[in-house]
Design a protein that fits this description.
single chain, 6-stranded mixed sheet, Aminopeptidase, 368 residues, elongated, 2 domains
Length: 368
C-alpha cells in the first residue's frame, strides 16, 4: 500500500489516454486490496468497464454518497521538468493524477476510521473523450445503489491554493464536438477556373459563422482548434476539414446553433458547387449543480476554506451526466501558489500538498 503522493507520482509518470487506463486501474486495485488487508476491512470492487473502478463501502443499510475522480490523460508532451515527469508522450495536464490521489487518499482514511456512512468511490475513465461518465451510467452499475448525493472536485490554478469555487446552478457548459469536411475538385493553381477550391469554401464558412448574431444572455462558443487542407503548393485544394467544439449553457441550444451552421454550408454548396459533410463527435451535457447540495457544502466548507460563489465557465465536463441523475456538486479546488499556466498546459503541475487539501474537502462533505 503506497501513500497518495506516491500514487500520484506513479500515475503522473505513466499517463494513459481515454479507455486505455489499464495500468492506472491495476495500480489502484493492487493498492486498495493491500489497504483492505492492512486495515482489516473488506469492501467490494466493481469493474463495470474495461478500465476504471467503482469501490463500494457499505457499513449500514442507508443511502450512499458518490465521490468521483477521473483517470485519463491528454496527448500532450510535458514541459514541467519535475522529477516524476511523464515517461511517454501523454501528460496529466488537467490534473487527473491529483484527483485520483485525492479520492484514493480519502478511501484510505475511510478504511482506517470506518465511518458509519455508505460511500461509492468512482474512479472514472475517459473524461477527456467519449464521455466516460455516461458510459458508467449506461452499464447500470450505479442503479443498484440508492445514491443520495454526489461530489466531484477539479484542480485549477486560476484560483489560489485552498480555494473552493463553485455555484448553485450551471457551473460548466455543454460540449459538442463537430467536424466539417468540404469536397471540391483539384486543378493547377495557374488554372483555378478548372477546379473547385475546398480551402476557399472553408474560409468562407469561417467568415460567415463569425457573423452569426450573438445572444449574450445565452452565449455560444464555436472553437476551431484544427484545420487541414491541400497537398501541394501549386494545386488547388480539393479537400478541407476543420475540427471544433461548441460550448453552450444548454445542449438544446447547441442543436439550434448547428442548424444555423449547416445553413451556411448549404449556401456555400449552392454558390460554389463544393459539397460538405458534418461529423458529430462526443457530446457532454452542461454541469448543473444542486442548490441544496451547494448550501450543504457551503455551510460545511466555509469555516476551513475560502469558499467562493462564481459564474458559469465554458469548460466542458462529463460529470454533467452524473449531476443530471443525482443531486450533485462539482467544485474547483484552487492550486495556484505562484505562476498561472491554466488547464491543459504542458507546464500545469499542482503541488503535492493539494492532495491533503482535497482529502479534507471530501472528508468534510462525505462524513455525516
Amino acid at each position: 500500500m503506497i501513500s497518495p503522493v506516491e500514487l500520484r507520482h506513479k500515475i503522473h509518470q505513466t499517463p494513459e489516454l481515454a479507455m486505455q487506463e489499464f495500468k492506472t486501474t491495476q495500480l489502484l486495485i493492487e493498492n486498495i486490496e493491500s489497504a483492505m488487508k492492512h486495515y482489516q476491512y473488506k469492501i467490494k470492487l466493481h469493474r463495470p468497464l474495461e478500465t476504471g473502478l467503482v469501490v463500494e463501502y457499505k457499513p449500514t443499510d442507508g443511502d450512499f454518497t458518490l465521490l468521483r475522480a477521473d483517470l485519463d490523460a491528454l496527448p500532450t508532451i510535458e514541459q514541467t521538468g519535475c522529477e516524476f515527469a511523464s515517461q511517454n508522450e501523454n501528460m496529466h495536464a488537467c490534473g487527473h493524477d491529483t484527483h485520483i490521489s485525492i479520492l484514493y487518499g480519502f478511501l484510505l482514511q475511510v478504511l482506517e476510521i470506518k465511518p458509519q456512512q455508505n460511500m461509492l468511490f468512482l474512479f472514472q475513465p475517459a473524461e477527456e473523450a467519449i464521455g466516460g461518465a455516461k458510459m458508467i451510467l449506461e452499464t447500470g452499475i450505479l442503479d443498484i445503489f440508492n445514491i443520495e448525493k454526489s461530489f466531484a472536485l477539479h484542480v485549477n490554478d486560476e484560483f489560489d491554493k485552498g480555494t473552493i469555487a463553485t455555484n448553485d446552478s450551471t457551473l460548466f457548459a455543454s460540449c459538442y464536438e463537430l467536424d466539417i469536411e468540404f469536397f471540391g475538385n483539384s486543378a493547377h493553381v495557374a488554372f483555378p477556373q478548372n477546379g473547385k477550391n475546398a480551402l476557399n469554401a472553408m474560409r468562407i464558412f469561417m467568415d460567415e459563422k463569425d457573423k452569426l448574431p450573438q445572444n449574450y444572455n445565452k452565449p455560444i462558443i464555436f472553437g476551431i482548434g484544427k484545420v487541414e487542407s491541400g497537398k501541394v503548393r501549386n494545386i488547388v485544394p480539393d479537400y478541407a476539414k476543420l475540427e471544433g467544439t461548441i460550448r453552450s449553457l444548454k445542449l438544446s441550444e447547441t442543436q439550434t446553433y448547428i442548424d444555423k451552421l449547416e445553413r451556411i454550408c448549404q449556401g456555400i454548396e449552392l454558390s460554389t458547387g463544393i459539397s460538405y459533410k458534418l461529423h458529430h463527435g462526443s457530446v457532454l451535457k452542461e454541469v448543473v449543480n444542486s442548490p441544496e447540495i451547494f448550501e450543504y457544502a457551503k455551510s460545511r466548507l466555509s469555516e476551513k476554506f475560502d469558499f467562493q460563489k462564481i459564474d458559469v465557465k465554458m469548460t466542458g465536463e462529463d460529470y454533467g451526466y452524473i449531476a443530471e441523475r443525482y443531486p450533485s456538486l462539482m467544485m474547483w479546488l484552487g492550486t495556484r501558489t505562484e505562476e498561472f499556466y491554466g488547464l491543459h498546459n504542458p507546464r500545469f503541475l499542482p503541488e503535492d500538498s493539494i492532495i491533503e487539501d482535497g482529502i479534507e474537502v471530501l472528508r468534510i462533505l462525505a462524513a455525516d
